[in-house]
Amino acid sequence: MHTMLDAARIQRITRDKDQVIELFDAGDWSMLATYVGDLGGYITGHSRLLRSLSFGDEDYPACVAEVLANLVRKDEKVLDLVESMLREKGSQGGNGASQTGLQTFFGAGQVHRIEQTIDTSLVTAMMPFRPDFDDVRETMRQACANTGRTLKAADDIWESSVLIQDVINLIATSCMVIVDFTGKNPNVFYETGVAHALGKEVIPITQSLDDVPFDLQHHRVLRYDNNTDGRMQLQAKLEDRMKTIAQQHGWFTWTF
Closest Cα partner for 88 from 24, 40, 171? Predict the structure, then answer.
């Protein structure tokens, strides 16, 4: 069923388009594609949208308008979702530095609001949970400890009967999220989208740059080797990155 684009809908799309151009990044588009289900193909399958965003091409505004119009023709409620995402990003004032606030998560066609206090001493790890990643996880933990922070992952918590709710709450509470793309784990991709949608500071790492999704390759990724020297180098890079983020937001929980 198609929705006719009358004058009111066109005006609404035009208004939202300008805000999307200003506020949306690749992670936001990824989240929107995930939560509109089958309609996500209008985003991920577009020949220019994400590439134009990555390279700052002049046709990006036209791509945004085309994608929004196509989505609305299929389901007008998509605009409600887009506008909720825009309100959340706008409320962060562009720097994500608020210590408390109303976090918004979109899933299963519903808008879930999670009121959380952001713990500036808490870092979340999203990674494959396999024995061959135990040393990598310990490296992350040590890097966090050396910068005055605690590392937690999904298997460290059990507060809800629904695992994804615990994961969402953990991400919402954390001030930073380390994501390991090694092996193209689908859960890590999903959780990265959640973190981006909640405006989190995401630190991506990987053993192979080929495992990084195309629409996230323009982000700086820390590549590492899973051996003693490689993990030592990763620890140092993580510490430097976390200190930089903390300084940018004024999260001074330790003495440098």
Answer: 24
Segment 184-204 mean pLDDT: 88
pLDDT above 50 (res 129): yes
- The predicted model scores a pTM of 0.56
Q: Report yes or no: 201 and 96 within 8 Å, Cβ to Cβ.
A: yes
Q: Which two tokens stand for residue 217?
A: 């390759």
**In this predicted model, what pLDDT tens digit does every residue of 6-37 receive, in sequence order?**
777 788 888 889 889 988 888 889 888 887 88
Per-residue DSSP letters for the chain? -PPP--HHHHHHHHHHHHHHHHH--HHHHHHHHHHTGGGGHHHHT-SSHHHHHHHT-TTHHHHHHHHHHHHHHH-TTHHHHHHHHHHHHHHTTTTT--SEEEEEEEETTEEEEEEEE-EEEEEEEE---SGGGHHHHHHHHHHHHHTT-EEEEGGG---SSSHHHHHHHHHHHEEEEEEE-TT--HHHHHHHHHHHHTT-EEEEEES-GGGS-GGGTTS--EE--SSHHHHHHHHHHHHHHHHHHHHHHT---S--
Give percent of the chain with pLDDT exceeding 70. Answer: 79
Separation of alpha carbons 165 and 111, rounded Å: 13
Instruction: Give me the pLDDT at residue 113, please.
Output: 53
Burial class (CB in 10 A: 0-12, 13-18, 19+), 118: buried
Rounded distance between C-alpha atoms, residue 248 and residue 148, angstroms = 16
Per-residue model confidence (pLDDT) at position 94: 40
